């Protein structure tokens, strides 16, 4: 395999397994050695990049990464007093750190996955602020890069890096244990865990890095974790079921989001016969379970919106008035730029594109200038309203912000439809 192919495979392995390895190592060494576990995993990835182009990819690459990370952690722990107390426990856990083929031993892989959920609750310890809890969970357990974590919070990379450093220091200085909290301390952690799962799915639904528009592995893992939370007697709360409903209803539409060439297909143009009805039905079952009690979370409102889309037989048959009403309530709970942009798009379906543009204008000062969805939405609504010059300006601004080749191709198509000549070549070639 060529070096570029090796790099892609290692990156994919890191995405899928780094959080699990860090969780397993930290489960043994303690959260005070979180940095050690992260460094050990990074070292394993670097060794893979150095060796695999010459030695070939091992038959069990995941197991290879587990072994190398385990050895790196052992070497560093050996230099510390903790080693005398932890060496035997670490050695005894080697088998569980090397997931064999699922068809032979699925139980062991499941044990490592459970470590991941425990690690999420540990990272969401009440000694940290809510934002720090979620950010640390995304970085450590979900293997988000600092850039991805920053984008999830609509903040800058330096600000997020400092936030993560402070969070790790706070956990280390507090001697926080890696364990599932009891009922008395569950609620402060559950909200942050649910938010982290929500953001994990979001990154998979519309990946901000890499070649793939959809990160299926992240979406599946987020759904798995959400349903696992719903099965635990201490965490099976209405808001947890609402989150599971939201993710499953969104996941049900994923098969229709890409065409045969891997290009993005807008919701209005999707072939709804391709949608996953099994996932949709599971989502509706969780939505029904979420109605127990009198709690109304943001996940309830977003799940209601997702249900409106998933149950509609066509774009025209969508209950847009109900969606706008849900967004109105959602804005009261969560007055964010993300919600404001989505509401404006839905409002345009009820009252016309000019009403949508007016709604966007109302939030102009609150929406970050580099928030790509806002620029795209403004361009689309302006084009629909016949304000071509305004639409071109918005699409060009969005094109300058778009990090993904597929997004840039979509924007170039929209600009061409409005009469702006497409550049020679496409995507990255044109920019070069």
Short synopsis of the structure:
With 432 residues, this protein is an all-alpha fold. It contains 20 helices and no strands.
Counted up, domains total: 3
Mean pLDDT: 82
Distance between the termini: 28 Å
The fraction of residues assigned to DSSP E strands is under 5%
Total count of helical runs of at least 4 residues: 20
Number of strands: 0
Please describe the biggest sheet, giving its number of strands, its sense, and whether it closes into a barrel.
none
Q: Which structural class fits the helix and strand makeup?
A: mainly alpha
Would you give an account of this structure?
The structure is a single chain. With 432 residues, the chain is mostly helical. The protein has three domains: 1-99, no CATH class; 100-208, no CATH class; 330-432, Tetratricopeptide repeat domain (Serine Threonine Protein Phosphatase 5, Tetratricopeptide repeat, Alpha Horseshoe), CATH 1.25.40. The protein has 20 helices and no strands. The protein has helices at residues 3-29, 34-55, 61-77, 82-92, 106-123, 130-141, 146-152, 157-174, 186-205, 216-231, 238-252, 277-290, 298-311, 320-333, 337-351, 353-362, 372-384, 388-401, 405-417, 428-431. The chain is globular. Residues 97-113 and 424-432 have low confidence and may be disordered.
């Amino acid at each position: 395999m060529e070096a570029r192919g090796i790099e892609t495979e290692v990156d994919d392995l890191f995405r899928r397994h780094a959080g699990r390895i860090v969780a397993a190592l930290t489960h043994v060494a303690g959260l005070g050695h979180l940095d050690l576990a992260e460094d050990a995993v990074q070292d394993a990835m670097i060794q893979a990049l150095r060796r695999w182009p010459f030695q070939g990819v091992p038959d069990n690459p995941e197991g290879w990464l587990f072994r190398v990370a385990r050895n790196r952690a052992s070497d560093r722990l050996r230099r510390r007093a903790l080693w005398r107390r932890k060496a035997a426990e670490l050695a005894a856990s080697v088998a569980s750190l090397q997931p064999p083929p699922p068809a032979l031993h699925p139980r062991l892989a499941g044990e490592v996955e459970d470590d991941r959920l425990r690690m999420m609750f540990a990272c969401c310890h009440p000694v940290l602020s809510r934002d720090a809890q979620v950010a640390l969970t995304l970085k450590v357990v979900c293997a988000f890069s600092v850039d991805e974590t920053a984008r999830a919070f609509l903040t800058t990379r330096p600000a997020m890096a400092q936030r993560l450093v402070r969070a790790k220091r706070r956990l280390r200085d507090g001697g926080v244990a890696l364990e599932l909290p009891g009922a008395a301390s569950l609620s402060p952690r559950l909200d942050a865990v649910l938010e982290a799962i929500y953001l994990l799915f979001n990154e998979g639904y519309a990946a901000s890095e890499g070649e793939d528009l959809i990160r299926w592995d992240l979406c599946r893992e987020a759904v798995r974790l959400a349903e696992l939370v719903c099965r635990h007697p201490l965490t099976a709360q209405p808001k947890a079921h609402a989150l599971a409903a939201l993710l499953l209803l969104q996941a049900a539409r994923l098969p229709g989001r890409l065409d045969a060439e891997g290009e993005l297909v807008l919701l209005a143009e999707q072939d709804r016969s391709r949608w996953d009805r099994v996932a949709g039905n599971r989502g509706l079952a969780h939505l029904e379970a979420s109605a127990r009690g009198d709690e109304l979370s943001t996940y309830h409102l977003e799940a209601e919106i997702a249900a409106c889309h998933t149950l509609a037989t066509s774009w025209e048959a969508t209950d847009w008035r109900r969606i706008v009403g849900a967004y109105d309530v959602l804005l009261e709970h969560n007055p964010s730029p993300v919600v404001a942009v989505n509401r404006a798009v839905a409002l345009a379906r009820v009252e016309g594109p000019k009403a949508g543009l007016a709604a966007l204008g109302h939030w102009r000062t609150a929406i970050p200038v580099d928030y790509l969805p806002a620029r795209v939405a403004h361009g689309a609504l302006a084009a629909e309203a016949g304000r071509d010059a305004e639409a071109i300006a918005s699409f060009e601004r969005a094109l300058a912000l778009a990090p993904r080749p597929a997004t840039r191709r979509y924007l170039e198509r929209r600009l061409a439809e409005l009469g702006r000549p497409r550049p020679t070549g496409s995507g990255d070639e044109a920019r070069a």
